[in-house]
């Protein structure tokens, strides 16, 4: 019995050893044969898309701050966050005063934001200094369609062929008029055919000393910002390559003379002393200004405040040389050159300057959207029941709107011109003398920037 048990155990051990040997051979790695053409292939599971890495960007802006348009800009950022939860936005809304000084300080200190809102002068200075990014390579790589914007608003924010910002708002200047004052004077309301001569003649008839005390109580019109009188005669502050001041040329003299004459010769526009007592904005609200060149930023307050007279708007008149021109103002968002999150920053730019961002600002009544589809629908519909009744004039005026010339040192150039014009408006110097003095200051600025 014992012998039989031993044989059984031996047999089992032999079988086990054979099995172990077989397993050992199959575990040896061998290069696989090439699969036959008809062999079924086992598909590998598709790799999952990696989740977007969360990033943070810093954004500063002055848009809508002073107007406080229902927190419009904060709402734009909140909408972006909802659409892009993978991007956290550290957002600061700041007052316009000292904004640019603060921004330049942050840049110098290495704490610049990724994105900043900029007006035209700010943007051109920062583009020239290399502080902001030319967006064209990103626009091309993204196939981002710029045709949705009014082309003139894109042109404003270009520098030497580069696109240094995307427009977030636009505005221009039209002519408001007090219908009650025109009715009282027996004059037809102004329209888009009015020439400069008619404009000045109407302003004379509308200017009144109502109580006979020798002081004008109602002015026929107000002056525009001085670059208008340069643009309307085709003048420029410097030549094509910005190497020499051209303000002593006759077309510049003619334009600025027309401006000065409104106050000193025709006496239809308030002087510096008049404006110190009450600015032209409040003069119009008080019914003391018959014609007022102003932009859409006035609409909200004027609808709230003006209750004692009726008013409407038309285009600015044809200028002294027969040209019809208005200002084109605008604000943009730009990307700082120091940004380390340019992909996320560009996503933000597209959203806040695109249809989504524009719609929020337009619904809040802030200026005019640079996106054509928003401006041509929502701007007009938002104005239903408000003044001016001829609200289309803002969009019509965009057809002949021009922006002021650009230069890296535009602030210094502008200061040189405006200070001399102030002296001319006081009658201290003639317009030709003012322009010669301005050029004496501007030429060294141009030479130094070369």
What keywords describe this structure?
D-Maltodextrin-Binding Protein, domain 2, alpha/beta, six-stranded mixed sheet
List the helices and strands and how they pair.
Layout: H1 2-26, E1 55-61, H2 72-83, E2 87-93, H3 99-108, E3 115-119, H4 120-129, H5 136-142, H6 151-156, E4 158-159, E5 162-163, E6 166-172, E7 174-178, H7 179-185, H8 196-206, H9 227-231, H10 250-264, H11 272-277, H12 280-285, E8 291-294, H13 299-305, E9 311-314, E10 326-335, H14 342-353, H15 355-363, H16 372-382, H17 392-397, E11 401-402, H18 410-425, H19 431-449
Parallel strand pairs: 1-2, 1-3, 10-11
Antiparallel strand pairs: 3-10, 4-5, 6-10, 7-8, 7-9
Your description of this structure?
This protein is α/β, with parallel strands linked by helices and 450 residues long. The chain folds into two domains: 55-172 and 328-402, Periplasmic binding protein-like II (D-Maltodextrin-Binding Protein, domain 2, 3-Layer(aba) Sandwich); 174-326 and 405-449, Periplasmic binding protein-like II (D-Maltodextrin-Binding Protein, domain 2, 3-Layer(aba) Sandwich). The chain is 44% helix and 12% strand. The protein contains 19 helices and eleven strands. It has helices at residues 2-26, 72-83, 99-108, 120-129, 136-142, 151-156, 179-185, 196-206, 227-231, 250-264, 272-277, 280-285, 299-305, 342-353, 355-363, 372-382, 392-397, 410-425, 431-449, and strands spanning 55-61, 87-93, 115-119, 158-159, 162-163, 166-172, 174-178, 291-294, 311-314, 326-335, 401-402. The strands form three sheets. Strands 1, 2, 3, 6, 10 and 11 form a six-stranded mixed β-sheet that branches. Strands 8-7-9 form a three-stranded antiparallel β-sheet. Strands 4-5 form a two-stranded antiparallel ribbon. Helix 18 packs antiparallel against helix 19 (431-449). It is globular, with a radius of gyration of 34 Å. The termini are far apart. The model is unreliable at 1-43 (pLDDT under 50).
């Amino acid at each position: 019995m014992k012998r039989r048990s031993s044989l059984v155990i031996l047999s089992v051990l032999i079988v086990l050893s054979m099995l172990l040997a077989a397993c050992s051979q199959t575990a040896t790695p061998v290069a696989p044969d090439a699969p036959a053409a008809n062999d079924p292939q086992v598909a590998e599971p598709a790799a999952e898309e990696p989740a977007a890495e969360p990033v943070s960007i810093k954004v500063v802006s002055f848009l809508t701050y002073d107007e406080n348009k229902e927190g419009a800009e904060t709402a734009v950022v909140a909408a972006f966050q909802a659409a892009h939860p993978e991007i956290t936005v550290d957002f600061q809304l700041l007052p316009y005063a000292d904004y640019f000084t603060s921004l330049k300080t942050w840049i110098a200190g290495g704490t610049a934001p990724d994105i900043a809102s900029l007006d035209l002068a700010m943007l051109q200075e920062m583009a020239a200094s290399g502080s902001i990014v030319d967006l064209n390579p990103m626009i091309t790589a993204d196939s981002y369609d710029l045709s949705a914007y009014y082309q003139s608003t894109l042109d404003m924010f270009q520098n030497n062929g580069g696109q240094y910002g995307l427009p977030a708002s636009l505005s221009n200047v039209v002519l408001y008029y007090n219908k009650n004052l025109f009715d009282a004077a027996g004059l037809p309301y102004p329209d888009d055919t009015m020439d400069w001569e008619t404009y000045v003649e109407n302003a004379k008839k509308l200017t009144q000393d109502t109580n006979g005390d020798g002081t004008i109580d109602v002015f026929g019109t107000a002056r525009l910002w001085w670059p208008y009188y340069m643009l309307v005669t085709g003048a420029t502050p410097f030549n094509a390559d910005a190497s020499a001041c051209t303000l002593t040329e006759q077309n510049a003299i003619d334009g600025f003379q027309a401006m000065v004459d409104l106050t000193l010769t025709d006496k239809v526009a308030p002087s510096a002393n008049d404006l110190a007592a009450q600015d032209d904005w409040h003069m119009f609200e008080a019914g003391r200004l018959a014609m007022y060149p102003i932009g859409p930023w006035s609409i909200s307050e004027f609808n709230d405040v003006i209750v004692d007279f009726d008013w409407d708007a038309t285009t600015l008149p044809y200028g002294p040389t027969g040209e019809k021109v208005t200002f084109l103002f605008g604000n943009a968002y730009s990307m700082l050159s120091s940004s380390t999150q340019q992909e996320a920053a560009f996503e933000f730019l597209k959203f806040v300057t695109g249809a989504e961002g524009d719609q929020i600002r337009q619904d809040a009544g802030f200026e005019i959207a640079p996106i054509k589809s928003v401006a041509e629908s929502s701007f007009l519909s938002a104005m239903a029941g408000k003044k001016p009744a001829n609200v289309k004039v803002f969009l019509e005026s965009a057809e002949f709107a021009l922006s002021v010339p650009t230069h890296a040192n535009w602030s210094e150039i502008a200061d040189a011109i405006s200070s001399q014009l102030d002296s001319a408006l006081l009658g201290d110097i003639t317009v030709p003398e003012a322009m010669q003095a301005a050029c004496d200051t501007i030429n060294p600025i141009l030479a130094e920037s070369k």
